[in-house]
Fold these 2 entries.
Entry 1:
Amino acid sequence: MAIKDYLTKLFPKSLWVYHVNTGACNGCDIEVINVLTPYYDAERFGIKLVGSPRHADVLLVCGPVSRQVASAVRRVYEATPSPKLVFAIGSCACGGGIWHDSYNILGGAESVLPVDYYVPGCPPRPEAILYGVAVALGILPKKTAPVVARQKFLDVVEANSGEAISPEG
Amino acid sequence: MIISKLKEALICFKAGRVTLPYPFAPHDPEDGFHGRVVVDAEKCVGCGGCAEVCPPRCIEVSDPDPDRRVLDFLLERCTYCARCAEVCPEEAVTVTKEYETATNDLNDMHMHIEVFMSTCRRCGRCYEPPTPLDRLMVTGFRPPTGKSEEA
């Protein structure tokens, strides 16, 4: 609820998005365009694609940030009027994807810009992008959480540490 | 010209509503969709095969102490190819259809799996459990004769 109040205060009207391709393979771009079609219809939430970062509230960053495009991405971010949100769309923008250790890649979008929302997927389904929008607008709750799993036998081992035991008993 | 416009309008009315009610109603993906991977830590043997085949190298294997192997899944750069689930010999890694993974914190996409690795108490190394294939290595081994050979 806190995010919703915060956002309604900051963005009382429609969110206008500017789509930034920072070296993506075009897969995420196609899915972003899909979201704007009447079938998925992100315009229900007032989302509109604009042609200039100066008109935009939200930057949709697709792709890993390559060394060549990094300065342009920083300029796009500075050209966007505050308050602004940055969405990282796709695995490449979230953490670098399969290019994370390439020589010409600086990393995901967070290596250059402060990212507010991550939508992982390779490419993310249009529904996943809509879900990210819905989470950002406070319509739906976040469903993911960090997973920490541990074999039960490890607790037994630690209880009997130093003694010779085997999984059979 | 007006008639053609009217025809166009009629076609639009015929199509009805096409928009998905998605964020307000669930929309399950079709069969064969690769979503977020899930690991059953109890089934995992810690072989590291998943880390070997992962294209984005998003599975990090480390051994903090001789009894314990830690697998860190950095799923923010997962490409959802499901190779890890294909190669897993114990079927501990499974692919779900979960795609609603949008988050504002990258830690939500991390998985931390701790696996017990049984080690030899004398030499401290991991040992392999005996398998039926071991007897193939014995000198003079002959496969059991089947009926086809007798005939």
Entry 2:
Amino acid sequence: MSTFRFNIREAARKPLGLLPGHRLCAGCAEPIVVKQVLLATRGPTIVATATGCLEVSTSIYPYTSWNVPWIHVAFENVAAVASGIEAASKILREKGRSKYDHIDVIAFAGDGGTYDIGIQALSGALERGHDFLYVLLDNEAYMNTGIQRSGGTPLGASTTTTPAGKVIPGKPENKKPIADIVVAHRVPYVATATPAHYLDLIRKARKALEVNGPTFIHALSPCPRGWRYSESLTIDICKKAVETCYFPLWEYDNGVYRLTDRSLAIAKNPGMKKPVEEFLKVQGRFSHLFTPQNQWIIKRLQEYVDAVWENLKSKCENV
Amino acid sequence: MNKIVMGLNGNEAIAFAVKQCDVDVVSAYPITPQTIIVEKFSEFIADGEVKCSFIPVESEHSALSVCVGAAALGARTFTATSSQGLALMWEMLYIASGLRLPIVMAIVNRALSAPINIHCDHSDSMGCRDSCWIQIYCEDAQEAYDAVIQAFKIAEHEDVQLPVMVTIDGFTISHTLQRVEVLPDDVVKRFVGVRKPVEIEIPGMGKVPMILDPENPLTFGSLDLYDYYFEHKVQQHEAIEKSRPVIRKINDEYYEISGRRYGDGFIDGYGLEDAEVAVIVLGSTAGTVRSIVKKLRNKGKKVGVLRLRTFRPFPYREIVDALKDVEVIGVMDRSGAYGGIGGPVYVETLAAFYNSKRKPKIINYIYGLGGRDTPPALIEKMFEELPKLEGGEVKFLGVR
């Protein structure tokens, strides 16, 4: 059990891991999540990042926004790169060639680098049991290349490769249950988080770092450009995602599921649960669903959200 | 001299050399005919004979990715592959050299699919000749052992900081038991030392080791656009040029501890002093060619052989100099040349002579694809045929 208690005054004094001046879009959730995760670190830390928005916007040579040692290698292999860093850090320490008693290794990747092209390297690293934290920054499409659908894109969302057309109204498939896939690897710790629920996120990140073995945080990362909303609404949309149970907050801790934060409150007081339209209607990527002929998609999405939510609640020991 | 004799095949010789080189992280994925290297190394790990982290990954792409991550932290790293495995690593080859990581990789040469074939040709490693990896082609298991030890020193030299491939012919060398002289562990350990990361000057930080180090946080793998990318690629070009004196020097230094050296480190000639006809060849076939050259020279024929050891950097000056009196040159390529002038060794040789005063006749022989046998009789026929040719021909040796 983690003895970590997040103290916001202490956190304010901690040097930032990701510095201002990066070129991520206004309203992008990614740097908020990254800064929150890095507030949870225990000491010497190395960050690896997959190719994507975060990488291209924070490392434009000759500048860097990273105040921690940082490496980007390619799109699909951040879990393998992190494996190498972790293995090297351990063996160099054993051979007496490291200055550090321990180095925390954190990998950041987007949904493309995790659900799709990177799932093989991720699965391999999880199975081999490397001691690292993998943070998925899920903005639900390939935003860096211009809003193409990914395995993380939800049903009905309009992207540039699943445009809302006259015949096909957005993405025909549901979102891949990536966190469940990671849990199925029997790793010690998996959690979901959003930057709006920051105490929950930081606590989970710290817990994940303290665990010995592979850990995974699935962070929702709204994208004003891709989701088509005003950049001031990022945190609000995160809250709506949780309030509608579109994105429930939970953790899987050594075989035990628990709901956390707002999701726990909703489970205890079901009247707080809002219809999924509350999450959809503020985003342009779903605007075509609010026409009479596409209402069935909202209904299907609601059914999907409800089914996932009920199943999750049935697994959680604190509900 | 420090002489311990063992019976090893090429793969075992490589695994044994890696064990002696105090490597920190080995990551690999099995593929025929490379598999024995990882199997043998796994035995060393399982028996506690080596202090090293072995990461058995889920693909070759991840094998090299693990090496990249580990090498960026300052570890000495090794991997090995063949054919399709090397093809799957492709993306990472350029990243390993671009990030200037001194990784050593053994390539057990095997034909590329399709059609699928497990036997030797050089199309796998020749295909990545422009990935800025140093490439050493070995003739036998002894050289494989020696070259791996040299490779770590070359890769980690402060003027170089580039990855090195050591290649052996699949099955012909990898699976053939040979007499291999090995050095005592402590001699090898002293020779290769411990990897010492280079120091670089960073504005505001001073001189810092070029590794991932929490005390001196550096950024690796930046987005590098039209304003700097070109300069960084030119630095790689300069680094591989600077590897030339390093390869030569380490070949000489290795002679001091082992009594063995391979020509000047780049090329190894036989009978070239007075040769009128010479053949350029790399890999295990060099032995067959040399035996024919001996036979023909005993009959008074003025023939010679130039064994090319280092294909990258390509020793163009050394080749032109070694063949300065030769009138006809046969260049043997064990990989295809689809839509080109000829195979890769041939094209490089042509280019080397284009800039020299002499213009010998140069003929290309593509041979041994997919493990096709190249028996001595075929080589003898090639030497008979060479003086009768015009130059510029591309011939297929041993094809039906």
